[in-house]
Amino acid sequence: MSWQAKLEHLLRDRRSGSLHLLGRTVHLCAEMAHAGAAPEHLVAVVERLQQAHPAMALLWNLGQRLREQAAQGATAAELVQSAQRFAEEVAESARQAVESVARELPSGASVLTHSAGTQLYELLRRLRELGKQIELFCTLSLPGGEGAALARTARRLGMQVCLVCDLQAYGVLKQVQLLLLGADALCLDGLVHKVGSAPLAYLAWMEHRPVWVLACSQKLLPQPWSEELEGEAPPCLRSTLPQRRALYDCTPWEHLTLVATEQGLLSAQLLRKQLLALTPEKPSNRGR
Predict the structure, then answer these.
(1) Which domain range does residue 190 map to?
(2) What pLDDT is attached to residue 288?
């Protein structure tokens, strides 16, 4: 398959998580450089992927990194090396965040998840290595239905797991001890993640259930939430009926409890202050 065909596939991918897409983007850049692509072409491809997946902070931050280095005269090979270093840094940060949650999550805890991603899969494997059993509830996570694959993995790992329809999750929330979410970005207004995360986190907040987020510092996105970040989901039904096709929503910081990064499990409000300190000129859209 040519790199052009691989690019088109990445542009259309609405199932893979941001860590997986980052790795494939870096491989694509390496293939392009090997084929003789100029530095500006690598930057342009990353920008196209960033526009196709607007909520994924890892692609935003990779694009910013490569743009700055290309402007300073970096060669295509140097840009690839930089992208590979960034991917390695992200992988290590994500691993440390998973380790923090695996260590702190008590054995026997009942946990509800929404959507799926590399860090959630790695967390399940790490829990098994530590000999910890949890009761896991996975939403189907439409559109996409990636929660089913997460549930199948949990069952293969010997965990007690139950797959629930997305709307059933509101009833399940009253039975569990914790809502655990992944992250596509942590913006000035809160957590950007699969559509449906925000109302689940709101109900968890109302029910006094903690909401934990698996992330890493490279997923910090120093900009406010906007409609641009909603992305576009595949149609939920083949029909001429009008359909709401948002793929992501934004959970306000006040509905989050702890965020796992390479620094450990941090208070959501502390992480928010760190992000605001980095970008004092970018006001939040919340509360306007």
Answers:
(1) 107-278
(2) 43
The pTM of the full predicted model, rounded to 2 decimals, is: 0.93
- Token pair for 240: 């001429």
User: Do residues 211 and 259 touch, judged by C-beta distance below 8 A?
Assistant: no
Domain closes at, from 93, 126, 141: 93
Using the 3D structure, point to which of 71, 93, 115 is the last residue of a domain: 93
Q: Please enumerate in sequence order all residues whose Cβ is within 8 A of that of 84, keeping only pairs 6 or more positions apart, or say none.
A: 26, 30
- Two tokens at 151? 């549930």
Q: pLDDT per residue over 129-166, tens digit each?
A: 999 999 999 999 998 899 999 999 999 999 999 999 99
Report the DSSP beta bridge partners of residue 20: none
Q: What is the pLDDT of residue 287?
A: 47
Distances in whole angstroms, Cα of residue 72 to Cα of each of 37, 63, 236, 288? 17, 14, 45, 39
Residues of the chain under the 50 pLDDT cut: 282, 287-288
Query: Residue 203 to residues 139, 169, 172: CA-CA distances in angstroms?
Result: 15, 10, 11
Residues 259, 180: Cα–Cα separation, whole Å: 10
